[in-house]
Amino acid sequence: MGGCNTPPTSATATDETSITGDGDGDTGDGDGDGDGGTGDGDTGDGDGDPGDSEGDGDGDPIKFDLRASADVPNDDCTCSDDLKHVICGGLETENCAPDGACAGGDCINDPCLAAELGKSSYGCDYWAVKTDLIMEGTGACFAAFVANTWEKPAHIQAEYAGQALDPSAIAIPVGQGANLVYEPYNPVQGLAPGDVAVIFIARDNGFLPACSVPPALVANVGVVGTGRGQAVNITTDVPVVAYQILPFGGGSSAATSASLLLPTSAWDVNYVAVNAFEKSVAAPTAQPSMTIVAHEDGTQVSLLPKVAVQGGNGVAGGPAAMPIMYSLDRGETLQISQDAELTGSPLEANKSFGLFGAASCLNVPVNAIACDSAHQQIPPIQALGSEYVGVRYRSRGNMQDEVVPWTVVGVVDGTTLSWTPAPPNGAPVVLGAGELVRFSAPGPFVVSSQDEDHPFYIAAHMTGGGNFGGEGDPEWVNIIPTAQYLDDYVLFTDPTYSETSLVVVRTPGSGGFAPVELDCLGELNGWMPLGDYEYTRVDLVTGNFMAVNGCENGRHEMWSDEPFGVTVWGWGSSASQGFSTVYVSYAYPAGASVRSINQVVIPVG
């Protein structure tokens, strides 16, 4: 990557003698080997070579695109978002066999390779990271969900620190709320198509509820505060969608949060750091946090911090605006938790890596009662968009238009934002590189920059439940760019939450808006116009786990002929009986494409 091709000077802090960059002095080569390929075993290095949108370093135009509307080679044939169908001229022309999948407009015999090339939230290789959590919650049950999106069984393997985890810690949830039970996972038969498995990774001593199934590890697999640790590798033999949740069973717990996981095929070498929120006032020990995770040995990550890094416990510190280099090996994590936010700080590496933003606990507003943890896996810079639709969760209590905070982070200088229908009070109209702006508004809105060369990041928040009788609590969730919407989703809603609601945004096609289907409901309705888009909200359960229109918590599928976005929101309330769910919440995007949709590179000198 440009600007990262020389050894650190005396002005560069480093925790290890190493070199970041490609070694050849060329701008835009992020693979570290000096040749035209990646040489690191990754699918694409995200190097931003001209005409090389897939980031593989070969200089060729992009070979294929998951979206059916894309104008690509191979006789105008591409792949459906779920990788199961070939689409030519906008029409589905071939169904790939269960042992195969679509890649580049053709059916191939390797579904995991197709998912790797596709760069979306479908994948076969994930890393779950237990992000920072205040001391009171460190023993919480850490778990991951795996939803089998394929037409054949998925065989799941998990490992931690090089050791395989016992498959008896994997279970299949059936039912919800007080009626929730867990069936054993059979590692020989695998996870049946359409089913969801919970991997109960770890739980240590603590006041939060125990795992519903004995976990694989009786230990705290997370780092408390700043330090180094290990992530959990989850692999499958067919594409799946994966999420992590902390703690599991959060409906009757506390300090809850969740994240969509991005497979390693969607990782890249250039990011902008995002913390969950500013430091809490009500919880003095809580801090903003971020965690880096590597999936290859010899991963060299350089950080250009906007504020001083305090360091400690094997993590080098340093002053603001001076690069710091960190070396990680496969499965290693590096976490920085401190009072001053690192949001807006660029990171660059010689190999692709994963990045999580978090808070060990956040209060929204910072002086409100009851804090929750928060974490999200952050997309790479080249997967960030230039247009987003912001629609908050369904209002709680009797409020008509609940006012909530939004976070916006700039990537490059001179980013001009246009808002539809109008700029909310306090919303930015110009952003600089790394600039952080938070404002509060009910929404909804569409916000866009002048072009794809000016990407930015935006997130939504839920406020604490103190003003709503314990209904919900603080949360933070990525908003997906409109250019990264999919047309098919498999999602899982935590059955321990008594309120579950989906936010859905759809894009028009050449013939107008296409119906969006939800398996338990059929065609969605209640659409409201918003600029060029439409949105609706759909409740699955409410009150005391009451089913809504035949829908309940659990595994669901949604689909349409045109791309749309889905955000899952879950929270609790005092209406639940026999299974307390007050002061909890979680949220995550149901899925996303993670393609390179811009060519921006932010070098770290």
How is the topology of this model organized?
Blueprint: E1 13-14, H1 73-76, E2 77-79, E3 85-88, E4 91-95, E5 101-103, E6 106-108, H2 111-118, E7 123-128, E8 142-148, E9 156-160, E10 163-164, E11 170-174, E12 181-184, E13 196-202, E14 227-230, E15 232-246, E16 257-260, E17 268-272, E18 288-294, E19 299-303, E20 324-328, E21 332-337, E22 346-362, E23 372-377, E24 387-390, E25 404-410, E26 415-416, E27 418-420, E28 430-431, E29 436-441, E30 445-448, E31 456-462, E32 475-478, E33 486-493, E34 499-506, E35 516-518, E36 522-523, E37 528-530, E38 533-542, E39 546-547, E40 554-571, E41 585-589
Parallel strand pairs: 1-20
Antiparallel strand pairs: 2-3, 3-4, 5-6, 7-15, 8-13, 8-15, 9-10, 9-15, 11-12, 11-13, 14-21, 15-16, 17-22, 18-21, 18-22, 19-20, 19-22, 22-23, 24-30, 25-29, 25-31, 26-28, 27-30, 31-32, 33-40, 34-38, 34-40, 35-36, 35-40, 37-38, 38-39, 40-41
Specify the structural class: mainly beta
SS field, number of helical segments: 2
Number of strands: 41
Task: Characterize the largest beta sheet: strand count, sense, and whether it forms a barrel.
Answer: 9 strands, mixed
As for the number of domains, it is 2
Distance between the termini: 10 Å
Indicate the proportion of strand residues. Answer: 35-45%
Classify the helix fraction into a percent range: under 10%
Question: What do the pLDDT scores average to?
Answer: 88
The coarse overall form would be: globular
Low-confidence stretches: 1-73
* Rg result: 22 Å
